[in-house]
Amino acid sequence: MIFGYILFKLIILLVDIIFVGILITYIFRLKLFLEARIAVGALIGIIIFGVSMFVISYFLGLNILGLMIFVIIINFLSIKYLVKNNIWKIQAEWLDLRGRFHKLSWKLFFLFLGVFTSIFGYLAFQLLTFNNGRYFVQPLHAYGDISLHLGIISSFAFGNNFPPQNPILAGTKISYPFLIDFITATFVNPLALRFDQAVALVGILMMVILVILLAYFSLRITASKLAACLVLVLFFFNGGLGFLYFLNDLQASNSGFFHFIQILPRDYTALKDLGFFWINVVISMFLPQRSFLLGLPVVILILYIFWDLSERFDMRKLILGILLISLLPIIHAHSLIVLAPFLLWLAILMLLKNKSKIMSSFALGVFGIIIILILSKIFLQQSENPLSFIHFKLGWMAPKGDIIPFYFKNFGFNLILIPLALFFGLIKKLKIAYFALIGQLWFILPSIFIFQPWDFDNTKFFIYWYLSSVVLLAYFLSKLILTRQASNIILVGMAVYVLIFAGSLDIARLISGSGTRYEIYSPQAIKLAEFVKNNTKQDAVFLAVDKFDNPVVALSGRKVVVGYHGWLWTYGLNYSQKEIDVRNMLAGLGTQDLFKKYSISYVIFFENEQNNYVINENYFYQYKLIYNQDGYRIYQI
């Protein structure tokens, strides 16, 4: 009965969110097929929901009252101002959809999208699961990141984290694009979903939106449904030459092909010990990097808008595009950087055709920059000097003197086929070729400069190189197929095979669950988290050792003085003095003044997980022991 009521509320809320987003697409005059409009509407609606709820919660807290205010305002505005002017447009697009559905090419396209959204929606559903009182995560690449995201989600849902602080560096700004985690938090509280349910709901929604937006963006610029399908296949199943090791493993296993596929022993795009770092985008980014799962659809929508603007100016579309760009600091900051050269090119094309709009467009651009700076300043912790991390390193993660073999085994035949597609595009499809040519910047720069403390994070730039390139590559391959010459079709089949085989193996391994699911939180950890939620203040700060899966942070929404060093390091944050103080406090040195300095309310100790620290637990015997179970001990300061 209770679950049925929650489900009813969820359905009503999601319908509201998507419907409002659809109406917004009409206000800003986006020209879309109905099915693409629903996906774009869902994306815009979820962003409106997230931003609106954040503003409301900033003043009232994240609760049912704030949610009711949002629903009332949105429904009032929709019914009063939006619906009556746009219902006839929806009806016309519905008739168009029905007409297209009778055509074979569209039926096949819809079938393909249905299969694709089912596969990757299922993987989003399986990211975090709950079984026998335990939380499990898959794939392994998400094992660490899921705790980071749960910590941010919990800080909003249970920690009243307004204004947002970093849960793993108490007293500092959040330092992470938090919007998707805040949106997820609203489904945990006040909508009362478990973590796995909320993560799955938002993940499935965003994965479906991503598939549809990428397909229709590709269709828009290539005018080919076949090319759009190839874009999805090449992008979602990307990989290098790791499949060669699969063939070795298959031969050594003495198993049949189809049996071995069900028991794959490892990922074949992530053979790091063998120098493979161009990991399949699904297992390295979409599943573990939740901000990217929201960021990439927004980037595609922005490109869609500016592609239209480069052909026909519309002030309303420009306003929407600028608004979306200005929100990227809290959606996905990397995308803001990567978008810059593409937007500069498209803006130049737009203004060359509409010189009378230069001043108004410039004013809107300045407005967007101001919003970006304000959001970054208010919400995001900035490292002391972000440029200090950038340094020259030829060959990304290639061993010294081994750059060419490293690149070829990672990026495979893309290094041959993409230049061929560029040559073809410059002759046959100039605008797509320029789009891909600009994207090569994000292959060249990450190949000669490291942009973040962790070298591997350059992959976040390579992905945009691949996305821009694969659109042109798919168009090139589709043209070969449409020649209907057997030799060309065979060549395309072989090309696609070598480009996606390794990635397909990794996706197949995820679907089968062959050694890819790991326990992340035990019943004992969950029990501890419930105690902390029910018996400590929401703004309580804990003193703890460096532990990435600390349930006090991830499941209870409380903050720690210094959390997992690996995340803080990759953000480029200076936590060295705080870490010295944490070690002194745990050793019982100078504690009273330090407790006051960091407003510490509790200290938590973990059994057998403190070997890198000098722990003087005897010092804390003077404080009240409020929890002592299953190897967890909490002292109240």
Structural account:
This protein has 637 residues and is an alpha+beta fold. The protein is built from 27 helices and ten strands. It has helices at 2-27, 34-60, 64-101, 104-125, 145-157, 179-188, 195-222, 225-236, 243-253, 257-261, 281-286, 290-311, 315-326, 328-331, 333-353, 358-379, 403-411, 414-428, 430-439, 441-448, 459-482, 486-512, 523-535, 551-554, 565-571, 576-586, 591-597; strands at 128-131, 134-137, 391-392, 449-450, 518-521, 541-543, 559-560, 600-606, 624-629, 632-636. The strands form three sheets. Strands 7-6-8-10-9 form a five-stranded mixed sheet, with helices on both faces. A three-stranded antiparallel sheet has the order 1-2-5. Strand 9 (624-629) and strand 10 form a beta hairpin. The radius of gyration is 25 Å and the shape is globular. The chain starts with a helix and ends with a strand.
What fraction of the residues are assigned to beta strands by DSSP? 5-15%
Unreliable stretches: none
What overall form do the CA principal axes indicate?
Answer: globular
- Rg over CA atoms, rounded to whole Å, is 25 Å
Q: What's the total count of β strands? A: 10
In spatial order, strands of the major sheet run 7-6-8-10-9
Q: What average pLDDT do the residues reach? A: 94
Q: What share of residues is helical?
A: 55-70%
Question: How many alpha or pi helices?
Answer: 27
How is the secondary structure organized here?
Blueprint: H1 2-27, H2 34-60, H3 64-101, H4 104-125, E1 128-131, E2 134-137, H5 145-157, H6 179-188, H7 195-222, H8 225-236, H9 243-253, H10 257-261, H11 281-286, H12 290-311, H13 315-326, H14 328-331, H15 333-353, H16 358-379, E3 391-392, H17 403-411, H18 414-428, H19 430-439, H20 441-448, E4 449-450, H21 459-482, H22 486-512, E5 518-521, H23 523-535, E6 541-543, H24 551-554, E7 559-560, H25 565-571, H26 576-586, H27 591-597, E8 600-606, E9 624-629, E10 632-636
Helix pairs in contact: 1-2, 1-3, 2-3, 2-6, 2-7, 4-7, 4-8, 5-6, 6-7, 7-8, 7-12, 8-21, 12-13, 12-15, 13-16, 18-19, 18-21, 19-21, 20-21
